[in-house]
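Predict both folds.
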Amino acid sequence: MKASRSLPVIMPNVANQRWSCHSCGNCCRTLVIHLSDEECKRIDRQGWEEKLGVVPYVYVGRARVLNKRSDGDCVFLDENTRCRIHTEYGEQSKPLACRVFPFSVRARRGGWQASLRFDCPSVVSSKGKPIGQHRPWLMQLVEVLDHRPPADDDGALLQRGVRATADEIDMVINRFARWLQSSDLTLADRLIGAARITTTLADTTLKKVRGPRFATLLGLLFNALPGECGGAPAAPTERQRGMLRQLVFAHAEHVTPAGMQAGLLSQVGKRWRQLRNARCFLKGRGRVPQLPGLAGEATFETVESVGPAIDHRRDIEDLLLRYLTARLEGRSVFGDGYYDWPVFDGLAALWLSLAAASWLARCGAASERESSVSVEDIGKALGMVDRAATRLPALGTMTERARVSYLLRDDGLARLIHGYSLPGGTP
């Protein structure tokens, strides 16, 4: 059935988060836009192939996506970073995927869950209107979508064989979100605590600890956390660092229409390069293979020598908290929101994605010959990680589940978060 105005859009509750489009054109360069049958017909009726001199969309298997120029820009992006469709026919004529960005929406029981994407520079810098003011606009957009409610809210397992209830999922999200806002602790301690409680819950058999008993368990664990955060974790082992570097490489692998259309020989060549580069990231020696979105060159040794940010600590902490809260509140960390992963595996992947962003920020700084990361390095790295987080099928494979399971051992999450801390210095 079709969505209607009676089905609400559920916005993520992210303090201090703003957004408005500032026509930077970044999304027109980086996104792969899939088109519906009706959108293709509308583009055809408007005669864009003749106007552009190139086909406006291409086939990738049975799917159709907006075409790109050789430099990666959408064929509809003009010299003023404006969309030609928007300019000539109005915003309502653009593909829905373009119109809804930087939000994503997915069906939840009783409505649409909105989540926010941090691969938009205006989201990272929190420029524009409070995101709650965009709800009426999103309500109009989702009216054209098919509403297919999931069988269970979020469709998430607490752990293998134990399906979470809606109330239990709310408990987890609310508890972790409140913990991250604990202003009497440093952000580093909050993240270490979140990692350790995730590890504890992942190792606990919860089959008979349900409902009120689960709420009691969460209360006990979180109440004990401040005292448990005093001791800094040991340094990550080389094996843990190597696993993180491979996760970094997985996040940085971007899909392009050209790559999706490549022939068999090109696909084989790409796969060979991926395997070779993945081994380089595991070993962590010599030159870092070129990563999409990062200019310049760096070695693994110089990346490890880059320190955390020494300026703008409050701005950095605000950015990191907005990102983590948006992922939690947007429910894009487990179940239907994250490759059908169980709750605590998904939370572990979230904390690890922050460590991956920290490594990428250090790589960006090293390629610019900087000794510490900047706010700009962190914003770009978060955008790269978030672009892949729920949209790159490789991150949802059994290989990645196994990686996360390995890093849940031996305090691995806390070690990596502490070892690759982003903010440093004084406020």
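Second protein follows, with its predicted structure tokens after the sequence.
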Amino acid sequence: MRLFLCALLICLVPLAGHAAADDRGHARLWQAAVVSLEVTRQQYDHLQPWTRQAQPVAKVGVVIASRQILTTATDLQDLTLVRVQKGGRGQWWTGALLWADYFANVALITVDDSDFWKGLKPVALAPRLNPAASARIVRWNAGSFEMRKAEINRFDVTNPGFTDTAHVFAELSAELGGAGWGEPAFDGKRLIGLVFAQIGNVCHTLPAPFIRSIIDARAKPGYRGLGYFDFTWQPTVNPETQRYLRWEGPPRGVVVIDVVERPGTPSVLQPRDLLLEVDAFPIDIQGDYLDPLYGHLMLENLATRNKWAGDPVRLKIWRDARELEVDYLLPEARNAARLVPTAPYDQEPAYVLLGGLVFQPLTRDYLRSWGENWEERAPFRLAYFRNEEPTPRRSGIVILSQVLPDFFNLGYHDLRNLVLERLNQQPVHSLADLVAALAQASDGFHVFDFMKGDSLQRVILDAHQLEAATRRVQQVYGIQQDRVLPRAQAPTGPAPSVQK
């Protein structure tokens, strides 16, 4: 037995040596592709939207083509400066953001100085991921090149960055701390993904095939960005559900329970439709389909699997005891039907200051100002709206977030987080509505009506003194602008092509 074990160890030592040699060889390749990023961005306080401060963020990038560095889009919004370092130490070079797709969480950065690119070599993106392979997550850390073994646990679907887009991600296990900032994962010579989040030892990673689909799509004219499914469904695990829908045959599909009605665009789906297939992929009773690259995934991924906003998706449904096929047009993720949207990227928070009264649109970024458990800590009435959909009666929410004390607003100093319904009898769904209603003063007064049930339902201000009071409050509290209105999101533009 002892001789057998010795022989076995002798056989294993060369294998381990080969693995170590492979790592050393690959490490030279990875070191010539991986760079450090130092990002400086404007950080806004949504509770005091006129304040800002510079926030430094350390990220990781990987060269994937001539003069192009791939990273995640996390914390690149409101960017003021990006610097890039190669080799883990030494000189920092000024970089520039080529583009960032926040909904896909993918970005490209470049450096104009030709000297920076000397010694760097691009790596290729893997066309598919092998769950059986042993990967490596790498980065420069305090001047040393850090490599950690990682194993692919599974593939799943997520909504990153609080957006409405849902796409595939890979779950990797690795003994690595402080990850989630774009660290590249490799399987040999090929890049298999970027780490965008970490929970314990589990790293959530954007898979290379998904990244490639975004880069290729953006290189073409007319890229419209990612879409999403705006209908709500539930599984049909209970067989009574399928019998209720008069489905005949083996259990399959999920039942649609809610659809978004958009003005001028009636939905092709109806509540109680049984969704059987999406683009010829059969849907099971749990809402999953079999993906050729990733295995069983939730059907939401089919909205972002080489599909873009405005593209038709072929749905096979069961309605009124008969089978139908309909074309569902993917809505834009950035125009998601949410009563409480995420604040627009690359824009300072919007507000209007009127005599010390601060009005803001209710956004998820505002609610998240209450910290990690904002769903529980934010004002209940405001948090209640977060999962509601806009309606013709209420397309958005404007709140009186606070009152900056001044003798002009005496008696109203303690008011905060009230939902504004009307100003001068004009409905208010946006800050634009609020500004327009200021021209409708009645008998020299502005009358603000708030949602019933709040502690106070009406505020009356002298219209003649409003402007002077606003200027006085600005001077006392050091507020440069009395208003910042939201601007339309710029259309998603084309990006430079990337070598494959």
